[in-house]
Amino acid sequence: xxxxxxxxxxxxxxxxxxxxxxxxxxxxxxxxxxxxxxxxxxxxxxxxxxxxxxxxxxxxxxxxxxxxxxxxxxxxxxxxxxxxxxxxxxxxxxxxxxxxxxxxxxxxxxxxxxxxxxxxxxxxxxxxxxxxxxxxxxxxxxxxxxxxxxxxxxxxxxxxxxxxxxxxxxxxxxxxxxxxxxxxxxxxxxxxxxxxxxxxxxxxxxxxxxxxxxxxxxxxxxxxxxxxxxxxxxxxxxxxxxxxxxxxx
Length: 249
What we know:
The chain has 249 residues and is α/β, with parallel strands linked by helices.
């Protein structure tokens, strides 16, 4: 069977869409960006946050502007096998009509960004792949990091399951992940080890720049030092038992 190359199509563009587009491009994914423009409407319904010209200046190649609520207009650019990410933020009605147009074309994998709770509820009833609520998710993540100041980053990846990046407590220095027996002692899993490697270069403030190296395999016998951080996963209370060791210093 011939393998079908996956293509991602971003419809609508704002800060969220730009970050998604950059990440897909940086991972060498096939990407098409479409901005909405209802040419027959007297009102300005264009994606006003960013223009095709600006996107070209940012290095994006495959760009179109069309009425995304019109199945005939979309059919010129969209395939039923495409993965669609709807990033409209300005006009919710446009997003709903675009989803209907995509379904008429037989598109099955559709992700839509929500900006309000009510919008999320409506989108969830439209039988799409997933509703994305970046502001809400980022707000929860930021609150977790405020509460747990001993960690560099923290997120809830599933109900009751958290992942965080923590600095190395003094009592762990000179030890290894294997010797510390995280699962037995703390009932958490170590996902990876990160290391900051000084570059010998300095920024405008005179602070030395560093490259980050991530060890996903073969890190359990590495001797832990101050330049390391650990990414660990587990229940909230279990993680707190480990990260509190940093707070006590």
